[in-house]
Amino acid sequence: MPLPAPRGPLSRTVVSTLTGHHTGLDQLRDRMVADLPTGNDFLLDEDIAITLTMLYELHLRGIVGVSDDWEWNADLLAARAVLEARFLEAIDDLVGMVHPPADLEGALWAVGNADDGPPLSSFMARTAECDHFRELIVHRSFHQLREADVHTMAIPRLHGAAKAGLVEVQMDEYGGGSVDRMHATLYARMMRALGLNSDYAHYIDVIPASTLAGVNALSMFGVHRSLRYELIGHLCTVEMTSALPSRKYSRGLARLGFGPDARLFFDEHVEADSVHEQLIVREVAGRLAAGDPAAGTALIRGARACAAFDVLAAEHVWQCWESAETSLLRSLEGVTS
């Protein structure tokens, strides 16, 4: 990831530290305890969002110009732990109380079938202009160009049939071993077809906290073994809610004159996720809950979190577009291609 521009004092301190110009993260940690907001104010805080994004990226693709030695720096981990404690509280506020489900599969399908957000996919199918598509694709680019990497982090934490089921799902995400069929490759191809830069995290400085909050939640679920069931629940919602919107997005791109090659990312998800949703709910989540009575609550929590963050991001986009404003931090016209 390119080194992001700071968005406030927290991220400014982290950037200075990572580039060798400042030390004192222990003092930063102490200051954060008193100053952090709560609830949605935490989730939508631009400074906090980009700070967490940087701290998690040290465990994933890394940051340009930053030594990999920072990944396990004790002061950075301690500062991140303070943010994560408040992050988990904010997630609990967002998703509400989760009770142990009597019927796990039914409860997961209920999350997947809920429709609480704005009619974004229908708008994209029928009315959206090319600029709307470009913005939406930029919002999702940081996550989609990671491929399925964070969900894949659950594989070494599972065993038996649940692990085998997850591997089957993830193999499709990686194109069955063919780089040309990898979903990240298809997404990058779509970006280029729309005149966008497909380099990883190229648009990190214009993606707002409303979108980064969901990406950071996924990263937190991925890097903590204790949150592995939330990670699988999150994937359940991804797979259950992808096929129908993807069909609508493809229809919208076709309406705007884009050919099959540009639409292949969405077309692939119409077919693949119709199969994946059954696999992940029954063969992975269902088996985990059968083997661990405590898993059900965490699986539902992760599923609800994914759905809630999707709504949070979509509502921001929808409100901006209704006001004829860009939903990014600044217009794409000002971003170097």
Please characterize this protein's 3D structure.
The two termini are 16 Å apart. The chain has 16 helices and no strands. It has helices spanning 9-18, 25-35, 39-43, 46-57, 74-95, 104-113, 120-126, 130-144, 149-152, 160-173, 183-193, 209-223, 228-240, 243-255, 260-291, 295-322. With 337 residues, it is an all-alpha fold. The longest helix has 32 residues, at 260-291.
Output the radius of gyration. Answer: 19 Å
The helix-strand sequence is: HHHHHHHHHHHHHHHH
| Proportion of residues in β-strands | under 5%
Shape: globular
Features:
337 residues, mainly alpha, 66% helix, globular
How are the SSEs ordered, and which strands pair?
Elements: H1 9-18, H2 25-35, H3 39-43, H4 46-57, H5 74-95, H6 104-113, H7 120-126, H8 130-144, H9 149-152, H10 160-173, H11 183-193, H12 209-223, H13 228-240, H14 243-255, H15 260-291, H16 295-322
Helix pairs in contact: 1-4, 2-5, 4-12, 5-16, 6-13, 6-15, 6-16, 7-14, 8-11, 10-15, 11-15, 12-16, 13-15, 13-16, 14-15
Give a short overview.
This protein has helices at residues 9-18, 25-35, 39-43, 46-57, 74-95, 104-113, 120-126, 130-144, 149-152, 160-173, 183-193, 209-223, 228-240, 243-255, 260-291, 295-322. Helix 2 (25-35) packs parallel to helix 5 (74-95), helix 6 (104-113) packs antiparallel against helix 15 (260-291) and helix 6 (104-113) runs parallel beside helix 16. Helix content is 66%, strand content 0%.
